[in-house]
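Possible regression after last week's pipeline update?

I re-ran a chain I had predicted before the update to compare outputs. Posting the input and the new output here so someone can diff against the archived version. Not blocking, just want to make sure nothing changed silently.
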Amino acid sequence: MNKPTPGPWRVRELGSEGAMIYPDYGNIMERTRAICRSSMRDTLTDFANAALIVAAVNACFAVNPDNPLAVAEALPELVEIIKMAGQLERNKMLLDPIDWLPQLIIEEIISRSRAALAKLEAK
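New output (post-update):
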């Protein structure tokens, strides 16, 4: 698979022409090279969509610059693991996990955390 254009990315509003996503390397010439350009359907929605794409892409590059797609793919799993940990904390089970939790649940959280982290850091 080809690698994406390195980040950071930026979004520029083009007025009645929609929005453009471009690589921002500090070089003014790069700003003319669009990664993608919106249509002229609904410029406010186009700009909001472009801003969302740029924010997501830049966050993924910040976590794993070599493979931002791995971050995006691992994110749902990581959120589930965090929810599991949050549920345990809400129930005050983390105070003494040996007494409150079966060892299998602890091992599953650790195992899933390691697997999700490995996906997140995939090269």
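Follow-up from reviewer: compared with the archived run. Helices lie at 43-63, 68-90, 97-100, 103-120. Marking as no regression found.
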